[in-house]
Design brief:
Radius of gyration: 14 Å
Structural class: alpha+beta
Distance between the termini: 22 Å
Order of helices and strands: HHEEEHEHH
Number of strands: 4
Oligomer: single chain
Strand content: 15-25%
Helix content: 40-55%
Low-confidence stretches: none
Strand order of the largest sheet: 1-2-3-4
Shape: globular
Largest sheet: 4 strands, mixed
Length: 118
């Protein structure tokens, strides 16, 4: 199945998100990039349909979302998004930005455990 090309606006939005990553996203990316976590390839700010995932491992169909304070105000939107992704076979692991910064190794262990479930 060939995926449709991204429109230029969505592509630029994705690029902008990469340029302004949060500290928590940057911390995780330094440990997920270049197959550092058990040889798994993660993509950063990866577009899937109308959404952009913080981190995505295509091989394991796993999205990792780093939630800052604004996500607690948008729980309804996040649940709609998660349901849309799950319908397409993509599991979603949510971690708090605070946890990603303060307990990076524990977050990476959790990502690995979830990834290896499949």
């Amino acid at each position: 199945m060939q995926k449709p090309p991204l429109d230029e606006e969505h592509l630029e939005f994705t690029r902008a998100l990469r340029r302004r990553s949060t500290d928590a996203e940057q911390r995780l990316w330094t440990r997920l990039r270049a197959r550092q976590l058990a040889g798994l390839k993660f993509r950063r700010q990866h577009p899937v349909g109308p959404y952009v995932l913080d981190f995505y491992c295509m091989e394991k169909a796993l999205a990792v979302e780093v939630d800052g304070g604004q996500h607690y105000l948008a729980l309804g939107r996040d649940s709609v998004r998660d349901a849309w992704l799950m319908k397409r076979g993509i599991r979603v692991l949510r971690v708090s930005a605070r946890e990603a910064l303060a307990e990076t190794n524990a977050v990476l262990e959790r990502i690995l455990l979830v990834a290896l479930e499949r």
